[in-house]
């Protein structure tokens, strides 16, 4: 399962989620501005407080790193 840690006001989060939708990738959207437990988990696992952070099968990607995300999801 793909998890996207985001906030409603983050433009890069919107771009990332649109990219995933355009490529028919299902994901769980986790609003870390409302979910303190998820925010702590994201920080503990990624070492980052900024969003977006995407968890692809346990691999944490900080920011909208399109090339790395494509590689991990095997998108051409």
Structural write-up:
- It is built from 3 helices and 4 strands, in the order E-H-E-H-E-E-H.
- It is an alpha+beta fold.
- The chain has one domain: Glutaredoxin (3-Layer(aba) Sandwich), CATH 3.40.30.
- A 4-stranded mixed β-sheet has the order 2-1-3-4, sandwiched between helices.
List the strand order in the largest sheet.
2-1-3-4
Chain-averaged pLDDT: 96
C-alpha geometry: globular
Helix content: 40-55%
Number of structurally distinct domains: 1
Instruction: Please report the first level of CATH classification, the CATH class.
Output: Alpha Beta
- Strand/helix succession: EHEHEEH
Number of helices: 3
CATH-scheme architecture: 3-Layer(aba) Sandwich
Structural class designation: alpha+beta
Provide key terms for this protein.
76 residues; alpha+beta; Glutaredoxin; four-stranded mixed beta sheet; 3 helices
Overview in brief:
The protein is α+β, with helices and mostly antiparallel strands and 76 residues long. It has helices spanning 11-22, 36-46, 66-73, and strands at residues 2-6, 27-31, 53-56, 59-62.
Helix/strand layout:
Layout: E1 2-6, H1 11-22, E2 27-31, H2 36-46, E3 53-56, E4 59-62, H3 66-73
Parallel strand pairs: 1-2
Antiparallel strand pairs: 1-3, 3-4
